């Protein structure tokens, strides 16, 4: 904010310091707050940009948070402190950012439960949460195991059937191919008629 002073008959342009702008704002000049923001905008922007490095999507939100924080802190700022307003604002922006990140992290962690969490069962025993979760690979392994057993069983059964006499082999083969009890006599009759006797 520019302030014109008469000095020795000449107009001289002077910039008001942050502290002078705060005093004007405390004395009731609302335009001093806008001047404070404009005067410190580059510093605030630089600080927020540095904090949001790697999280650029948060930049606009953090700039808004920094502006609101500046308004709040300007209302509380007193010149008696040892820090300049610029230092005070930067520190408050950094602390506010870190506090929001901590809060967000703790909220995220609250929704998480460790798989090692103990659970009390009705029988008085304690098990871990991970032990209650179904194993997604269990059915797959069972299916593979069942398929392997079936295939091995087919091979062994085929070997055994091949050692039987032809008529017995035909009856067993018909049964294995899925002929029902009702279909079996007719099928067996055809097999017996077509099979030469030795």
Automatic annotation (TrEMBL):
It comes from the Bacteria. This is RNA polymerase sigma-70 region 2 domain-containing protein. It comes from Dehalobacter restrictus (strain DSM 9455 / PER-K23). InterPro entries: RNA_pol_sigma-70_dom (IPR014284), RNA_pol_sigma70_r2 (IPR007627), RNA_pol_sigma_r2 (IPR013325), RNA_pol_sigma_r3/r4-like (IPR013324). The keyword DNA-binding applies. PANTHER family: SIGMA FACTOR F FLAGELLAR. The keyword Transmembrane does not apply. Residues 36-105 form the RNA polymerase sigma-70 region domain. Pfam families: Sigma70_r2 (PF04542). Keywords: DNA-binding, Sigma factor, Transcription, Transcription regulation.
